[in-house]
Amino acid sequence: MSIRAMVMAAGAGTRLRPLTDRVPKPMVPIANRPVIEYTIQNLKKHGVTEIILNLHNHPEQIRNYFKDGSKWGVHITYSYEQKLLGTAGGVRKAAHFLNKGTFLVMSGDGLSDINLTDLVAFHRDRKSIATMAVKNVDSKFDYGVTLTNAQGRIRQFVEKPHWGDIFSDQVNTGIYVFEPEVLKRIKPGRVTDFGHEVWPGLLSAKKRIFGYPTKAYWCDVGNLNEYRRAQKDMLDNKIKFSLPGNQIRKGIWIGKGVRIASHVKLEAPCVIGENSVISKGSLIGAYTMIGHRAQIGEGSILKNCVLWDDVKTERHVRLENCIIGHQAVVSESICLYEGSIIQASR
User: Fold this and answer.
1) Beta-carbon contacts of residue 242 (< 8 Å; ≥ 6 apart)
2) Given a cut of 70, is residue 345 above it in pLDDT?
3) Which fold has domain 4-235?
4) Domain residue spans in the chain?
5) Cα(31)–Cα(47) distance, rounded to whole angstroms?
6) Angle at the Cα of 59 (from 322 to 6), degrees rounded to 5?
7) What region does 263 belong to: left with phi over 0, alpha with psi -120 to 50, or beta?
8) Rounded mean pLDDT of 252-268?
9) What angle do CA 51, 230, 109 make, to 5 degrees?
10) Mean pLDDT of 75-100
11) What is the pLDDT of residues 218-232, one digit of tens each?
């Protein structure tokens, strides 16, 4: 598709703290890749190669990782926000890039394999000026709730409703298609939100706005529970992205340069990142993700854990249902259980 896209990457990620104290939310790893990387991959898959990212929190980490995007077969430019402008305000700041024609807006912390080609075709077939992808979910309170008619036209919308406001199980995924005229409805330099201002404004103005129902996988990786769910779903093949490394046997993926000592037990499904070392007598349990360059000490037991890059566990460490941040060291013989999160001290 010869259209452009903006991927929202400026959020502070407060609901993911302490994971986002030193890492921007879009760079939080899912199966050893930043969550935003899957969005870039999906855009490329559907022929969208001109992409802009807005930045604010730890911007250098995103720039240094993606650079100009050529590694992924796309061209990436950046829009830095010294002060956060809100979802719509950030898009308005990038109007010079987006006002060439129909454009996509996607969330940098949303994990989805949505068919973007079908989404844009739906938008154009209905001569819509604004289309949001909507999905039926059980939990609605964290998302905008949308009601559409039989043709998909949006008839009602409430952002993050209370109990009495729920009228539908269709929620806003934060995946949008817009025509440039929408940009004119957003005042430049002002903090503006799509959910609270732009969508309700378009609705009250009786503009042609539609909801595209999708059954594709979608997870808003905005809190710790959803972050854990996304990891598990990747290992359960619920989403159409490949896992990194070689599958040495069913459900076990090993990266390049991994060294595994004798008497190590690997339980499926699990992923071990590149150049990691698993010392003798260790157990890597099911639903464990080990990042790149990890060092797992002798006799360690890891079950249902997520270890980021450059983590070191010393001898006889036991971890269950834990998240260990980049470069953290877990001391010898320590046991950590149920929801523990460890960050490096520096």
Assistant:
1) none
2) no
3) Spore Coat Polysaccharide Biosynthesis Protein SpsA; Chain A (3.90.550)
4) 4-235, 246-342
5) 24
6) 100
7) left
8) 95
9) 30
10) 94
11) 998 878 888 999 999
- Mean pLDDT value of segment 188-200: 88
CATH topology of domain 246-342: UDP N-Acetylglucosamine Acyltransferase; domain 1 (2.160.10)
pLDDT at 287: 95
Which token pair is 273? Answer: 């990142």
**101 backbone φψ class: left, alpha, beta (φ>0; ψ -120 to 50):** left
Confidence band for 57, pLDDT divided at 50, 70 and 90: confident
What's the whole-number mean pLDDT along residues 335-346?
65
More confident residue, 345 or 70: 70
19 vs 332, which has greater pLDDT?
A: 19
Q: Which of 66-70, 198-202, 259-263, 310-314 has the lowest mean pLDDT?
A: 198-202
Cβ–Cβ under 8 Å, residues 172 and 146: yes
